[in-house]
Amino acid sequence: MRFKFPMQKVLEHRKVVENLAQKDFQDAVAVLNEFQEKLDKMNQEILEAQARAGSLLQVGGAQGPALSQIHEFLKGQKIRILQQEQKIQEIEKIVEYKREILRQAALEYKIMEKVRENKFEEYKAERKIQDQKEMDEQAILRFKKTAE
What we know:
Blueprint: H1 8-59, H2 64-147
């Protein structure tokens, strides 16, 4: 007689749900990282523009149009950075939501896994008792044959 968990299909389903939640979470984290990288690039562009403006100021001369272009770029870039930070905050909320879904799915799977382990332990204990009864019966039958 072999151990058969009556809720094996439920256990397998919960594992599939956990795997899907893991994939969704990883996808959301990847999007968040992508937006973070874009924000970092924007900040780097601001630093580069400020460095160009500094070098133009040191050179001096008729650099007015170039400086005004850099100034306009910096103003626009700051607005884009604020928008990007808002998008990142929204994505962080999504990531937290997906993390919670993943945590719940993992918890449900672990609960089912624990139920399976408990049932298996019960099965082993039952099997041990049954095997002991069989061995006792065989010992009694052998003893009767030798006594006769």
